[in-house]
């Protein structure tokens, strides 16, 4: 659900994105930096505990409490929200791993503990959902969170790099003004809550997979979205969309600038605007520029 996007933005950009600079610049030796380790561990713990408590007080109390219960939302929003969960877990894990390496924590620990940061955090949100009368603990959300975490950990364990990156893009649609309470009324709300404009991408790097004739920063991305949704379920005329598009892995562009390394690290969470082919309802539609 859209609330999983907020901790991703805050945790990655505010806490973990900037400290990733050091490990994007060069290989990090397994030599513990005690001060950095305390900063990463303390910052992650404080943010996780503080934000979950704040979310519990500011959000869940306004929607009523109940006994712990489950909630089957696997059929909602044509599963676009589940792709968003996977993306959040993946990107939090990517940032967690980078922060642990910046602190000099050994690679194996960084992969498993840092890479699981998103799964740990989002499990806390699901736990709170389980006591909310408006929602409930979602096994589908947890499966998506685990899938995003597994994609990061599996690649890092096998290749020591991310050859396939989960990315996100969003654009404004005509659906949000028709139901602003659910799909958002302000620009940030619409980008986060209107699943009609959301696309989640698997962005693969051919150069890393053996296509050495291609630039190392050039990716090929396959995306999925959906449209025609004013409600979570049973929208007449709703349909899925699939996309093919070129993409850029900014972190594979060499640079000596710490600022650019940080910016590139953060930008790699997003699919770059580019031409795209859209496949929907048996038709193929071309876009000169799609985001």
Task: Draw up the topology in text.
Elements: H1 5-19, H2 21-25, H3 34-58, H4 80-102, H5 107-114, H6 117-130, H7 139-159, E1 164-170, H8 180-183, H9 187-193, E2 198-204, E3 218-227, E4 239-248, H10 258-267, E5 274-280, E6 283-290
Antiparallel strand pairs: 1-2, 2-3, 3-4, 4-5, 5-6
Order of helices and strands: HHHHHHHEHHEEEHEE
Mean pLDDT: 88
Count the DSSP helices.
10
Shape verdict: globular
- What's the Cα radius of gyration? 19 Å
Helix content: 40-55%
The main β sheet shows up as: 6 strands, antiparallel
Please, could you describe this protein's structure?
Helix 4 (80-102) packs across helix 7 (139-159). It contains ten helices and six strands. It is globular and about 55 Å long. Mean pLDDT is 88; it is low at 20-27. With 291 residues, it is α+β, with helices and mostly antiparallel strands.
């Amino acid at each position: 659900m859209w609330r999983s996007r907020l901790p991703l933005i805050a945790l990655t950009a505010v806490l973990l994105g900037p400290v990733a600079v050091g490990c994007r610049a060069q290989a990090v030796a397994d030599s513990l930096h005690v001060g950095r380790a305390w900063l990463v561990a303390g910052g992650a713990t404080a943010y996780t505990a503080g934000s979950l408590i704040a979310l519990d007080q500011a959000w869940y109390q306004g929607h009523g409490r109940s006994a712990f219960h489950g909630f089957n939302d696997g059929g909602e929003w044509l599963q676009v929200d589940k792709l968003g969960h996977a993306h959040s877990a993946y990107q939090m894990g990517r940032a967690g791993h980078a922060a642990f390496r910046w602190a000099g924590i050994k690679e194996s620990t960084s992969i498993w503990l840092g890479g699981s940061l998103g799964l740990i955090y989002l499990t806390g949100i699901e736990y709170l959902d389980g006591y909310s009368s408006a929602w409930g603990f979602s096994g589908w959300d947890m499966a998506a969170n685990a899938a995003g975490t597994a994609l990061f950990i599996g690649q890092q364990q096998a290749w020591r790099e991310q050859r396939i990156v989960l990315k996100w893009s969003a654009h404004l649609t005509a659906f949000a003004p028709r139901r602003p309470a659910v799909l958002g009324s302000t620009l940030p709300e619409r980008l986060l809550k209107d699943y009609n404009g959301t696309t989640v991408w698997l962005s693969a790097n051919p150069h890393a997979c053996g296509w050495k004739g291609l630039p190392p920063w050039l990716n090929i991305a396959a995306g999925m979205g959906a449209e025609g949704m004013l409600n979570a379920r049973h929208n007449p005329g709703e349909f899925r969309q699939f996309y093919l598009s070129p993409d850029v892995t900014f972190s594979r562009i060499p640079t000596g600038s710490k600022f650019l390394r940080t910016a590139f690290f953060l930008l790699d969470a997003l699919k770059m605007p580019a031409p795209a082919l859209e496949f929907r309802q048996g038709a193929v539609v071309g876009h000169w520029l799609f985001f």
